[in-house]
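HOLO CASE FILE
Compound: thiamine diphosphate
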Amino acid sequence: MTIATDQRINTLPPGDVPPTWCPGCGNFGVLAALRQAIELLGLPPHEVVVVSGIGCGSKLPDYLPTYGMLSIHGRPLPIATGIKLANPRLTVIVVDGDGDAYQIGAGHLVHTAHRNPDITHIVQNNQLFGLTGGQSSITSDVGFKSGTTPQGASHAPMVPTALTFTAGAGFVARGIANDPALLAGLIARGIQYPGYAHIDALQPCVSFGGLNSFDPYSGRTYVASDGAHDYARSRELVGEWGERVPLGVLHLDPAPRPVATGTGTPAAEGTAHHDPADPRYRALLEGFRVT
Ligand SMILES: Cc1ncc(C[n+]2csc(CCOP(=O)(O)OP(=O)(O)O)c2C)c(N)n1
Ligand code: SF4
Ligand SMILES: [Mg+2]
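Model generated. Tokens follow.
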């Protein structure tokens, strides 16, 4: 698809291929929310790059008319950081699953939250490994039965918002896939935040979710805050998980830390910029297309 520089995302069709997610999958809500956030901010799609890992949810960049990259399991954060450093004019967004971000990629998560590049991180948290058949993950609730936990998960789930808060993230939020309007607002605020922004997006898996499909969330979630609260309240909200699950902006640093900019130089000279009229770049980009 060729994107003219004056097009908004809502004037464009979806990506090149239709989603292969199961009917009713929460990822449809995450996709709608991200698209809505890009539209809300009026971001030119050719200046947006969405980087994912591997997993059901990580197929998302295929379904958006922006630039995108399906990368390696657990590794989208360092790749996105490199993209942002090479061309700071781009809006760089990472979308990956709980297994990707919170488990195999946990080291990158902590260091990215600490180092603070200006990227927005949306984690499709379905509390399991969807693509590989519903195995339990580090965020599975106690009692969740799967092929790897036939007696039910025995460890209390890791609370990822507490982890990124502790590592230094200045924007920490939680949304849910079945409220795309709330999630879109959080994503838009995360994109506007100057630094690393973490959005934990509860994303029910209707095929393997069991305890975690839509119904059990409905009595537990509540919109806790729009972010106007002090540090002590942030600490309570980022760690709350159980009978009650807070949504909204859980932590917003009123004095954001300096953003990681590599050597401190602006956009690298010679970096390829989107220009649909330039045949060299078209050939280059077509070379990346997997058919
Ligand atoms: C290095 C590596 N290890 C393991 C796998 C197998 N694998 C593919 S997806 C996945 C887990 C996906 O879970 P999650 O990130 O939560 O995404 P979901 O499918 O739930 O959206 C695993 C373990 C892999 N592709 N690469
Ligand atoms: S297995 Fe679960 S997460 Fe994967 S597409 Fe189906 S419903 Fe969605
Ligand atoms: Mg998952």
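CASE NOTES: The chain has a mean pLDDT of 90. The chain has one domain: 20-286.
CLOSED: yes
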